[in-house]
UniProtKB/TrEMBL annotation, chain A:
Name of the featured protein: Membrane protein
Annotated source species: Hansschlegelia plantiphila
Keyword Acetylation: no
Recorded superkingdom: Bacteria
Keyword Transmembrane helix attached: yes
Classification lineage: Bacteria, Pseudomonadati, Pseudomonadota, Alphaproteobacteria, Hyphomicrobiales
From TrEMBL, chain B:
Keywords: Membrane, Transmembrane, Transmembrane helix
Protein name in the entry: TIGR02588 family protein
Source species, domain of life: Bacteria
TM helices/strands, residue ranges: 27-45
C-alpha cells in the first residue's frame, strides 16, 4: 500500500469524524427543546410499546429519504443513504442518552422500560437533527446541493413533512394543546385551519420558492402553487400531526371531533414548519 | 425515492473527490446504528408481547430518618412493582402511638413508571422512633 492511499484514507476517516461532530451538534440543537419538555420523559415510560417501536421504525425511512436530499455525508447510492440514516440514529441515540444521563433523568433506579422509552422518544428528533446538521451547519456537498435545488415534487413533499415534524414534535406531547383546543369554539377551529393554509401559502409562495426555485419561471402560477404545495402541504401537516398524536397516545380517549380539533391546533405549528421546511431542513441552498 | 442518485453524471465533474470514498469508521458507526435500532426494536416488541394489563403495585419503605432543625426528615422510597404506570401518587405517613394518631403527613410523587421507584420525603415534628410510622400510597392517577 502506498503512502498516498494511506494518507488519503486517514483524510477520509478524519473527515467522517468531523462530520460526526457536526451531526452531534445538530442533533443537540434539534433535540434540546424536546429534551427539556417534562412530558417527553414520562411519555417514554407510559407509551404503548408497539407505538414506540413503530415510531423508531418510521424514523428510519424518513431519515433515508432526508439523507438522499441533504444528509451529513455525501451520498451516492441508496446503500449510502441507509448507512447515513443509521449513523444518524446512532448519533441521536448516543446524544440523547448522554444528555438524559447528565440531567439525571435516567439512572440505575429507573427500570429499563422507562430508560429505553425516554431514549427512543428523544432519538427520533435527535437523529433528525443529525441529518439536518449538514444543511444548516456544514457546507453542502455538490451533489446534495444540486439535488436539493432540483428536488423533485416527492422531495419537496418530504421536506414539507420533515418541517412539520420538526416544529410540532415538541408541542405534540404538551398539555397546552389540549387546553387550547378545549377553549376553542368550532368557529375558532375553522378560522385557525384557514389561517394555517393562508400563512402556509404566503410563506411557500412569497418567501420560499419564488426566491429559490423560481416557480414562476417554470410557468407554475399562484393557483398551481396553492394546489400543489399549500393545500397538499397542509394535508401532509395534518397527517403528520394525526400520526404523531396517535403515536403519543394523545387522541385515544377523544371523540372524533375533539381529536380533529386537537389535530388542527397542532396543525398550525406543523403547517408553519412545513412552509419553512426549506429554511429549516433544506439548508441554505 | 423518486430518483436514484446513481443515475446522475456526478463522476465526470469531480472524478477524485476523496470524501466520496467511505472510510472504515463510517461503516462501523453505521453498522452500530443499525444494530442499536434492531436491538431496541426487539426489546420494545418483546416488552409489547409480554405486557399485561394490571393495577400499579405501590410499596413504600423508609430509607432513613434525619433529625434536622426543621424537624425529622423521613426519606422514603416508593416502588411500583405493577405492570402499569401511576402518576400523582399520594403517599401518606401516619405516626401512631399505640392506637392514637400522633402526626400525619402527605407527599405527592409526580410519576412512578412500572417497575421503577421514586424517592421522596416527609418532615415530622416528632421523632418517628417514638411510635410506629406507617407509610402507604393512598391514591394515584393514570398518566
Amino acid at each position: 500500500m502506498t503512502t498516498v492511499t494511506q494518507q488519503r484514507r486517514r483524510e477520509i476517516e478524519r473527515g467522517f469524524i468531523v462530520s460526526l461532530g457536526r451531526a452531534a451538534g445538530g442533533s443537540i440543537v434539534f433535540v434540546l427543546p424536546v429534551l427539556m419538555t417534562m412530558e417527553m420523559w414520562t411519555l417514554g415510560a407510559s407509551m404503548d410499546r408497539w407505538r414506540l417501536a413503530l415510531l423508531l421504525a418510521a424514523v428510519v425511512p424518513l431519515l433515508v429519504g432526508l439523507s438522499h436530499y441533504i444528509g451529513f455525508e455525501e451520498t451516492e447510492t441508496v446503500v449510502d443513504d441507509i448507512r447515513d440514516a443509521f449513523v444518524a440514529i446512532l448519533v441521536g441515540f448516543v446524544t440523547s442518552t448522554f444528555i438524559l444521563t447528565l440531567f439525571g433523568l435516567i439512572g440505575p433506579t429507573r427500570s429499563l422500560d422507562e430508560i429505553l422509552g425516554a431514549i427512543v422518544i428523544q432519538t427520533a428528533p435527535a437523529s433528525f437533527g443529525a441529518v439536518i446538521a449538514q444543511g444548516q451547519l456544514g457546507q453542502s456537498d455538490e451533489g446534495d446541493k444540486r439535488r436539493n435545488r432540483e428536488a423533485d415534487y416527492f422531495g419537496d413533499l418530504l421536506f414539507l413533512a420533515s418541517g412539520a415534524v420538526f416544529l410540532s414534535f415538541n408541542i405534540a406531547p404538551t398539555e397546552e394543546v389540549d387546553l387550547i383546543s378545549a377553549s376553542m369554539t368550532p368557529y375558532h377551529t375553522v378560522a385557525l385551519a384557514l389561517l394555517s393554509i393562508a400563512s402556509m401559502h404566503v410563506i411557500v409562495y412569497g418567501v420560499e420558492f419564488s426566491g429559490q426555485n423560481a416557480l414562476m419561471r417554470d410557468g407554475r402560477g399562484f393557483w398551481s402553487v396553492f394546489l400543489r404545495y399549500s393545500l397538499v402541504g397542509y394535508a401532509i401537516a395534518l397527517l403528520v400531526c394525526a400520526a404523531m398524536l396517535w403515536l403519543l397516545g394523545r387522541i385515544d380517549d377523544l371523540g372524533p371531533e375533539a381529536a380533529l380539533r386537537l389535530i388542527v391546533v397542532l396543525g398550525f405549528p406543523a403547517a408553519i414548519g412545513a412552509a419553512f421546511a426549506r429554511l429549516i431542513v433544506g439548508g441554505q441552498s | 425515492m423518486a430518483e436514484k442518485p446513481m443515475q446522475e453524471p456526478e463522476a465526470d465533474e469531480k472524478p477524485d473527490q476523496p470524501s466520496r470514498e467511505v472510510g472504515r469508521i463510517e461503516w462501523i458507526v453505521g453498522a452500530a446504528g443499525a444494530l442499536i435500532t434492531i436491538a431496541v426494536l426487539a426489546t420494545l416488541i418483546h416488552e409489547a408481547l409480554t405486557y399485561k394489563e394490571g393495577a400499579p403495585v405501590l410499596v413504600s419503605r423508609v430509607i432513613g430518618v434525619t433529625p434536622t432543625e426543621g424537624g425529622f426528615v423521613v426519606r422514603f422510597e416508593t416502588e411500583n412493582r405493577g405492570p402499569s404506570t401511576a402518576a400523582e401518587v399520594v403517599v401518606s405517613a401516619t405516626l401512631k402511638d399505640g392506637e392514637r394518631v400522633v402526626e400525619q403527613a402527605e407527599a405527592t410523587l409526580d410519576y412512578i413508571a412500572r417497575q421503577s421507584s421514586r424517592d421522596a420525603g416527609i418532615v415530622l415534628r416528632r421523632d418517628p422512633a417514638s411510635g410506629t410510622l406507617e407509610l402507604a400510597a393512598t391514591s394515584y392517577r393514570a398518566p
